[in-house]
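Entry:
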Amino acid sequence: MTEEPIMDISDLQSLRVKDLTKLAQDLDVSDYSGLRKHDLILKILETQAEKRGNLYARGVLEIMPDGYGFLRSP
C-alpha cells in the first residue's frame, strides 16, 4: 500500500477546477460534481482526512477571551 502525499491547501488553491476535478476522481471523492472551487478543495481535504485519519493546518491561532480558538490563514 503506497501512502498518499500530504496535501497542502495552498497547492490545491493554485490548481484549476479542471485539475481539481481530476484529482477528486483519482482519490475517489464522492459527490464532487458541480461544487465551487473552494468547496471542491474542502471536499478533497475532507476525503483525505477520512482516509488518513489526520488533517494538518497552518496559520495563526487566535484565542478569544472565552477560550475558543480560531485558526486564521497566514
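The chain is about 40% helix and 10% strand.
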